[in-house]
Amino acid sequence: MITGKTIFISPIDWGIGHATRCVSIIKNLEKNNNIIIGVTDLNSFFFEKYFPQHQKINLPSYTIIYSNYLPVWLKILMQAFKIKAVIKQETKVLAQIFKDYKFDIIISDNRFGLYNSNCENIFVTHQLNLKTPFFTSLANKINLKYIHRFNKVWVPDYEDENLRLSGQLSNSKNIKIPVEYIGPQSALSFANIIPAAQEKNDYLILLSGVEPQRTILENIFLEKFKTADKKIILVRGTKKKVKIENKNIKIIDFAFDEELKNLILNAETIICRSGYSTLMDLHLLNKKKLILIPTPGQTEQEYLADYWKEKFGVEVCTQHIVLAYNFKDVKNY
Fold this sequence. Notes:
Largest sheet: 7 strands, parallel
Shape: globular
CATH topology of the largest domain: Rossmann fold
CATH class of the largest domain: Alpha Beta
Oligomer: single chain
Structural class: alpha/beta
Helix content: 25-40%
Number of strands: 13
Low-confidence stretches: none
Strand order of the largest sheet: 3-2-1-4-5-6-7
């Protein structure tokens, strides 16, 4: 147990998923430690909502640009030099911050440059063994090079391989620093269940991830369900304006805490991306009737979708066939 320490924690800002899984880590540490949170313009609103009482310090944003057409892995590869520059920048920025705060522990959720040699450095990730379409050995060599700059790794998954939610992604055989499996982490583990009877819905669609693929999938769903007679709730993950033709579709821009937990519990079927943070939320709530739609070209999500289909029997639908997919035939496993 960590007590009496000043802890600086910050997640990468590629989507909000890394921030959500930091919630439970922070809540487990804040009772006995001084917590300072590193934020960017992309996730500061989230941490201000959950932790208004904790000090926040701005860090460089990765601001990765994605494409309507090119696969995610290719767009990231094309921005490799930019990412490397941000990693170097965050190390320099952290060195300046450290002079003022003298952290005892730094916890970095997938921010490769967030470490300082004057304190203990913990790296949080479920991706110890990358899955890439090309150059897998090189990608893992670079991944391990950055991870080994830290003192230890926390993996938000089960140590027992038979229970693993992330499959081979969290295989630690090549990691040369201490690895601790801290179990699945979810912000919803601290949210209350509303005891009053809730309205049941046929489908809960959880949109997440970065643009433009979030909007592309949203438009596909609105076309797919424009005449549906099912009760559908769409949690959009944005405040951008949208036109809804079907009165059976209820729109929610953002849902957190008790609201999101109760929406999930009262939905017959969940339709969502196969992002790992979302999967941990659904695992925590024991939701088993799932349709996973991985972001095209995002190899981690594609692997997780296939793994959950084989391991847990969920349904998987690729984005390009959503319009032709028969959602009525979804089976409960």
